[in-house]
Specification:
This protein has about 500 residues and is α+β, with helices and mostly antiparallel strands. It has 15 helices and 22 strands. Strands 1, 9, 10, 11, 12, 15, 16, 17, 18, 21 and 22 form an 11-stranded mixed β-sheet that branches. A 4-stranded parallel β-sheet has the order 5-4-6-7, sandwiched between helices. A 3-stranded antiparallel β-sheet has the order 3-2-8, covered by helices on one side.
Length: about 500
């Protein structure tokens, strides 16, 4: 094999209705419709938010039934043809179950000085009525829109704080009281003490609290969908907002269709009987032992509909090397779950090849566990993918290097530009000189060019947005997000769920 060469990998095509292949998902949805066109039934949605948030959401849902245009007709930001026209399915807008959040209660909770209690109380203001509705309701929505005021977004994040003036002092003053209940524990104190078990992050905490209920949600800030309701916007902010209108519409509409059970597109010309796994680790900050971390694996097929497999929390982090590694038995257990799930969905056949993507090297112990689980069933390969920050390539002319450029260093490693100039939309993904991904086949023997082609393909499977491509493959794109949600609170006995529940 010739080494030290630069090649170009053509933009992967994606497949839509009628077997039509294009490279831009917005083109495919506009011209042909989603891959599973006609197979997704009309569905109901629900809304939870303040009275103003519910009104804004209903207005937005009605507006996206019609075409939405970009003010300057930018080729990189194509018009949105309307929800039914793009996805060939309808939302029931005649009957929308709505749960109104008490704004007076919100105004009081905004002032709570303790971050954990403030976030947990606001999250529960949304979670508890949702749980009650699910238990009592007969006609349950497929998807719930969780509409939050900007103030929830700004005051319910890890580094948020409230001004001391006018704040309400709540919580416990010492660590012992936070963990150990007193003899005369009341309901409020017990609820506040439980708040310290959760990360003070609204998005992540709401998601993990609803995982057991199997509630599919889409969290949206009120201003994001406030079409034509921008009285306080400066001229500069209004211009920026107008430039983003079509992008916001495409992204949210695509997410809605996916979370309603649809597959917007699939990758064309994908390698058959191949499975891709993203290995996820996240430190458990609530544990006193710095080695304790949560592990999860996400299995992706050509459909892009990832399935998350949660591994048990364990001492996977090494503070000295700053790397995460499974024990042999946990690696065996995790991959065995993945293989069993693949077998159930593929007529009792195992994949021919399994590619495990990670950010760190795989040590001998965990690799023995993976190989033992795959023995006699599949060939398993370990691929390390990291973002390179120093190495760059430049080309003559006013445009940067093309997306798809690949600098092959040797038979097992290469630099791949998943960002760069894209002729179809005459644009560049990112604002700076594109940096490549550094890709290494560190376990197994597989052609590096084929691996790079797979990675580029996996940048086209982000259903949480409707964009030309992503700079990171889905196997790693949501690694941190899933880890953050699984470690945002107690996660015992969480079942294996599709990817849509986490995003």
């Amino acid at each position: 094999m010739k080494t030290q060469r630069i090649e170009y990998i053509r933009e992967p095509e994606i497949k839509f209705a009628f077997g039509q292949d294009v490279i831009d998902p917005r083109d495919g949805l506009t011209l042909f419709g989603p891959y599973d066109k006609g197979r997704v039934p009309d569905f109901a949605i629900g809304i939870i938010g303040t009275s103003d948030g519910i009104r804004k959401c209903k207005n937005w849902l009605n507006k996206i039934q019609n075409p939405v245009y970009h003010p300057t007709r930018d080729i990189a930001k194509p018009f949105f043809p309307g929800f039914n026209q793009a996805f060939s399915v309808s939302m029931n807008l005649e009957y929308i179950p709505s749960i109104e959040i008490n704004e007076l209660a919100l105004d009081t909770l905004y002032k709570y000085s303790d971050n954990h209690i403030r976030v947990a109380e606001i999250v529960d203001l949304y979670v508890n009525p949702l749980k009650s509705f699910i238990k009592e309701g007969e006609h349950l929505p497929k998807l719930w829109f969780v509409i939050i005021p900007n103030k929830v977004y700004t005051l319910c994040r890890p580094m948020s704080s409230v001004p001391k003036k006018g704040s309400i002092n709540v919580g416990f003053t010492d660590e012992y009281s936070k963990k150990v209940p007193s003899m005369f524990e009341d309901e409020e104190s017990g609820r506040w003490r439980a708040a310290y078990k959760y990360e003070n992050h609204f998005h992540n905490q709401l998601k993990i609290k609803l995982l057991k209920e199997r509630v599919v949600t889409q969290i949206i800030r009120e201003d994001t969908i406030a079409f034509h309701e921008k009285p306080n916007f400066s001229e500069k902010k209004l211009k920026t907002y107008n430039q983003q209108v079509t992008a916001i519409t495409w992204n949210l509409a695509n997410t809605v269709y996916y979370k309603a059970g649809g597959i917007p597109w699939k990758v064309a010309n994908v390698r058959k009987n191949v499975c891709y796994i993203g290995l996820t680790f996240k430190r458990d900050e609530t544990h006193s032992d710095t080695r304790i971390a949560c592990c999860a694996a996400q299995m992706f097929l050509d459909s892009g509909d990832g399935v998350v497999f949660r591994g048990r929390v364990g001492p996977y982090y090494n503070p000295d090397t700053k790397e995460y590694h499974l024990t042999e038995d946990k690696a065996f257990e995790l991959l065995s779950k993945v293989l069993e799930s693949f077998k159930k969905g593929n007529d009792s056949d195992f994949p021919e090849k399994i590619f495990i993507h990670g950010k760190t090297y795989f040590n001998d112990d965990e690799w023995r566990g993976f190989e033992k689980a795959a023995s006699g069933k599949s060939n398993v390969y370990g691929v390390r993918i990291t973002h390179e920050k120093e190495f760059k390539l430049f080309r003559a002319g006013k445009f940067p290097i093309f997306r798809g450029a690949c600098y092959i260093r040797n038979a097992h490693s290469a630099f791949l530009w998943s960002k760069g100039f894209m002729p179809r939309i005459q644009s560049v993904l990112g604002l700076e000189t594109p940096n490549p991904l550094w890709i290494e086949v560190i376990r197994g023997d597989e052609d590096i060019r084929a691996v790079c082609k797979d990675v580029l393909m996996l940048t086209k499977l982000n259903y949480n947005a409707c964009i030309y491509c992503d700079g990171t493959p889905v196997t790693l794109k949501f690694a941190d997000l899933i880890g953050e949600i699984l470690t945002a609170g107690p996660n015992e006995e969480l079942e294996i769920l599709p990817f849509m529940y986490y995003i």
